[in-house]
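Action item from last week, closing it out:
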Amino acid sequence: MFSPTSTLRPPFSISPKRSLIRWSALTPTRSSTAARRKRVAVNALHPRAALGRAIALVAFAATALAARAEALRFDGLVLPFKEVVVSSPVQSTIQSLNFKEGDTVKAGAVLARLYGRVEELDMLRAKAALEKREFDFKGSKNLYADKIISEDEALKNKIELELARLQAEQAAELFNQRTILAPIDGLVVERMREIGESVTATQPMFRLVDIDRVYVQFYLHSEQLVRLHVDDTVKVRCTNGGADAGSADTFVGKIDFIDPRVDAASGLLRVKVLVANPKHVIKPGLRAEVALE
């Protein structure tokens, strides 16, 4: 019989404790979140993960180095090894011109002669006076040895001989200034005067260039100097100006000069590379590319 005082029991029992455990498994708690973060940290320290990061760093470094090596290429300009403007040292008239544009000259070759008849006559007169003084000095030397003339007379003749020698050298130098000589081996690239024209002192007459060797000049930033030193070997790529005109050839050069001054406005400094050019295939004025090894 059903007793009114008895406690009703359902056909099943629900444990509050078990119900709480089930809900805790379904609901994230602070302890479970911390555990998951710990597992992630442990996985990050796994050898495979460390190896992957190392490979990525190496790949990045290799890419950076390749980019840096690729960046060390500079555009330059070809310049002659020497360029000289030959001027007249005196005022006179041109009598002869011995070379034209495009001719090859050697140092000391006579490029031109100026009118100098008056200077030539002065030189001949001074030479004759010198010969007379030399003869007088020899005679006075013998007379002094024989005690015929005094020491003062012999010394006077010696001084006159020295003065005559100086006057002869001066006259010869003035005459030689009428002869224009080539100061270097090279090519005549410009002849600025013609026969019969008058020239004044320091007025240009010829322009000579030496391109047996050429300079390739370029500019770089001061922080790039760590890769450059004088006498370092570099590669120069330039358009061929010889028989295969238009094609680009690669030449080997050597760093000859690094300007110690840095331009305050641009932060650049000047570098010159010396390149052998015996066949004159590299023409001054061409653009060139300098690659640093």
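Closing note: DSSP finds five helices and twelve strands in the chain.
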